[in-house]
Specification:
Strand content: under 5%
Mean pLDDT: 94
Low-confidence stretches: none
CATH superfamily: Ta0600-like
Number of helices: 4
Distance between the termini: 10 Å
Shape: globular
Radius of gyration: 12 Å
Number of strands: 0
């Protein structure tokens, strides 16, 4: 079963990737803050999924980055 720590690790990898645009890295850092907050788990996941949907719809991000975002989205959905 996937945990929020697994999602955080994937977000950290996204941040460390030199090919990922800065705007996506900024969102990833924001998502990590949300995941570490004291809010309800379902609320944290919902907030993160909304942000990831916004980023994935950006036509300017590379296809590989979009695939990484979809993978993180999938992990989050399995945490519910």
């Amino acid at each position: 079963m996937t945990t929020l720590n697994d999602v955080e690790a994937k977000l950290q990898a996204l941040i460390a990737d030199n090919l990922v645009p800065k705007s996506v890295k900024d969102v990833a850092q924001e998502l990590i803050k949300i995941l570490k907050s004291d809010e309800d788990k379902v609320l944290k996941i919902t907030k993160c999924l909304e942000k990831l949907d916004e980023v994935a719809e950006d036509p300017n991000i590379p296809a590989f980055t979009r695939t990484q975002i979809w993978n993180i989205t999938s992990l989050l959905e399995s945490c519910k």
